[in-house]
Each structure stands twice: as C-alpha cells, then as structure tokens.
Amino acid sequence: MAKEIKENEKVDIQEKLKELPIEFRLRAIDRLNIRELRKKKTKFSKFLLLLALIGPGVIVMIADNDAGGVITYAQTGSIFGIGFFIPFMLLMIPVAYIVQEMTIRLAAVTGRGHAELIWKRYGKFWGAFSLGDLVIANALTLITEFIGITFGMGLFGINPVEAVLIGIAFISTVTFGLRYHKWERISLVIAAFNLIFIPLVFFAHPNWSAVANSLSTWRVSSGFTPLFLYVLLASIGTTIAPWMLFFQQSSEVDKGIIPEDINSGRRDTLIGAVVMAAVAIAIIILTGTVVYGTVSNGSTASYNIQFIISTMGSKIGSLPVDLFAIGLVDAGLIAAIAITASTSWAVGEAFNWPKSINLPFLKGRKFYIPGLVSMAFAAIIVLIPNIPLGFLNLTVQVIASVFMPAALLFLLLLSNDKRIMGKYTNKPWQNIASISIMIFLVTASSLYGVSLVFPNLI
Q1: In CATH, what number does 54-457 get?
Q2: CA distance linking residue 130 with residue 403, whole number of Å
Q3: Cβ distance 197 to 279 under 8 Å?
Q4: Hey, where are the domains in the chain?
C-alpha cells in the first residue's frame, strides 16, 4: 500500500511539472534531484551533493581571473616585480568573498536577480542607472576578453578575425545551446583550465625567500606614484567588478538556491576566491621573476603583453609560453560566457522578459540577444587596427573599479532591507567590512584623480 502511494506521488509530481513553463520545470527537476541526494546518507551521495551544489561561486571567481585580469597581473609583475601585489592579492580573498556572499543570501531568500530587486525596490530611475552602469562596464570588460582570445590564439598562428569568430561561436554554443545544469557543468570544466597558470611559476625558478618576504614587507618598488595607483585600481577592478554581483545572484536564482543552500553557496564562493588569488599570485610571481627589471625605468614596454610574452619565451622557453597562451584564451572564454550571461540576466530582469538559461534560444531570444550584442560590440572594437591593447586593458579594469562603489551601495542597501531579507540581513561586521571596501575604492580612485591633476603632490 505504501509503495502504491509513493508511485502515485511520483505521477502527481510529474504531472505538475508538465504544467510549468520550461524554465521553471527544468529548475524544479534540478531541485528535486538535490532533495533526493539530501535524503541519502552514504558518503558517495554526500560527495555527489557537494558536487551538485558547486557552481556559481567557483565560476564567478575563476571567471574573475579573466583575460583582462591575466594581462593585468602579468603587467603588474612586469612593472613592480615581487612585492606589494602578492600580499595584496591575498587580502582580496576576504574582500571578494564578503562582497559575493551577500548575493548568495539575496538570491536564496528572494529568488530574484540583482537587477530585478533594484528595479522593483528602488524604482525605474535607479534601476536604469544600475543597469546602464552594468551594461557599459560589461561591454568594456568583454573587450579585454577578446583581447586575450585574439592574442592567445595569435600565438598559434590564428589571425584576429578567425580568433574572434571562433570565440563568438564557442561562447554562443555554450550560452545559447545548453540548459542551465549543463551550462554550469561545462563552465566549470572550462574554468578548471585556469589552473594552468599555477605550474608555470616553477618554470621561472623564483626566489621563494623574496616571495615570503613580500608577505611581511608589502614593499612598493617605485613608491606611491600615479602609476602605482593606476595599477592598484586595475588590480582591484579585476578582482571585484559590477558584473560579478549581477552574475552570481542571477546564477544562484537560475540554479534554484534556497535558504537551506546558503552555507553550500558560501563554501562554493570561498573555494573560488582562494583559487582566484592563487592563480593571480602565480602570474605576478612568474612575470615578476622573468620580466621585471628587463627594461629601463620609465619605459612603457612592461605594459606591452607582446613584450612580456617574448621575454618569457627567451628566458624560460616556448612550452611555458604555449601554456600561458592556452590559459589566456581559456580565461577569455570563461569570462565572456559569464559576462554575456550577466548582461542577459540583468536586462531580462529589468524589463521583465523571460530570464533563464533553461530557455531554448528562439523562445528566450529577448533574454539572449543583449549578451550577444555586447559580445559583437567588443569583438568589433578589438579588430580596430593599431588599437593600444595593453593600455586599453588596464583602463577597462580601472573603469570597473570606479563603477564598483555604486554597485556595492545597492548591494549593501538590499542586504540590510528587512522587508525583503527578514532574519538574513547583514550582521554588523559585514556592514563594517562592506563600507570599508567602499571607502577604500573611493579613496584610491580619488587619489588617482588628484595625482593626474597635481602630480607633484604624490
């Protein structure tokens, strides 16, 4: 009799699922699979549950080590060597985690994406402001992804036009051709290739004593110059960026996260943050060992990714250069996948369009097209002849850091809103940490502005 009741329940669930729109039906199926794994108490089922809950946090953090980020870290090591920026990247682990953790709670409690919450909670003006901020920043950031894709593929003899077309085709296939669960799994596989940068350090044979010493000295080789502030802002811009807030919250919603999953989301994000910092530090040590000091003071060669790569090739051989190129292409691809999805989710939420990667392309074309358009725009910019790619890359990261305080303010307001968050609002220490991050960003960008107008003051 009990078996018959269970069979009837399964039939009822299947019938109810058929009544749902496809995006909600597929999300519900994923949630039912999670529920079944929670019921089982074997070690293998717990392992499968851990794997099933990993996703948005790891993807957002590793995608944050995008092509622009890889180039920025390479330039940072080339310009400043082993010193300040190694402990600084360790500091970025808790900074990135604190910021992104708020998006997990917002997604789990409200079931709404970041753009949708801003639009509905603060009205059309601020909704449009935040959306415009995001779309502009995303389009600019996508330029750096295609810089990485074209340059990385170029090292294997693929011309820029072909590299751009390959990149667009690959990103479109992953984003527009897969349902959320498969999209997330494929994205995690692509993200795993970001780890390729870590073993490259050992080709350089760095001075590990100098690396360890940097953790206590925080030494700035050239002092607090406008160039240092510029690179500092660029490093911040590639570590915490507006698109990350919108991406993770919407991705968690599309995954179907609920309050019960918050701790799993936190663990997912912490793992991603540690990997992000490890890769960034590896790149800084690599170029800080191999490239730093090879040009005279005041030379702009250290900005030039072509110069950095050629110097690496002459000093440590072609294999590390080939691996670096593969990692650079991979970084551009995983970030472009995440950023195009971020744009699509935000626009869909703002205008109340269908907003799920579970949607087939034709049915969800309003959702997918904004991401596709931003990707096409970035690809066209990269193909402009003689565009200064190294300087453009750093500038985009600086712009991202300048946009970040406004994005953080909305995140902070939403996370403290008891009307929507209830008992899941920020704790006092989270508010103090978030406000401190905002003050630091505003101060750093202000100092940079002052240094440009009054260079002798700094």
Answers
A1: 1.20.1740.10
A2: 10
A3: yes
A4: 54-457
**What's the Cα-to-Cα distance from 251 to each of 79, 180, 257, rounded to whole Å?**
36, 9, 9
Q: Tokens 């990692």 belong to which residue? A: 327
The one-letter code for the residue type at 174 is V
CB distance 144 to 237 below 8 Å: no
Residue numbers of the chain with a pLDDT score lower than 70: 1-15, 17-24, 28, 221-224, 295-303, 388-391, 393-394, 397, 400-401, 445, 448-458
Q: SS3 letters for the chain? A: CHHHHHHHHHHHHHHHHHHCCHHHHHHHHHHHHHHHHHHCCCHHHHHHHHHHHCCHHHHHHHHHCCHHHHHHHHHHHHHHCCCCHHHHHHHHHHHHHHHHHHHHHHHHHHCCCHHHHHHHHHHHHHHHHHHHHHHHHHHHHHHHHHHHHHHHHHCCCCCHHHHHHHHHHHHHHHHHHCCHHHHHHHHHHHHHHHHHHHHHHHHHCCCHHHHHHHHHHCCCCCCCCHHHHHHHHHHHHCCCCHHHHHHHHHHHHHHCCCHHHHHHHHHHHHHHHHHHHHHHHHHHHHHHHHCCCCCCCCCCHHHCHHHHHHHHHHHHCHHHHHHHHHHHHHHHHHHHHHHHHHHHHHHHHHCCCCCCCCCCCCCCHHHHHHHHHHHHHHHHHHCCCCCCHHHHHHHHHHHHHHHHHHHHHHHHHHHCCHHHHHHHCCCHHHHHHHHHHHHHHHHHHHHHHHHHHCHHHC
pLDDT tens-digit profile of 170-205?
999 988 888 888 898 999 999 999 999 999 999 999
- Distance (Å, whole) CA 66 – CA 62: 7
CB atoms within 10 A of CB 420: 17
Token code pair at residue 32: 């039912």
Q: So what's the pLDDT on residue 223? A: 66
CA-based max dimension of the chain? 86
Instruction: Compute the distance between CA of residue 457 and CA of residue 3 in angstroms, rounded to an integer.
Output: 80
pLDDT tens-place string over residues 419-441: 999 999 999 998 999 888 888 87
Closest CA to 305 of 155, 162, 193: 155
Token pair 């704790």: residue: 427
Are 130 and 342 within 8 A, CB to CB? no
Q: Measure the CA dihedral 341/258/19/45, to 10°.
A: 100
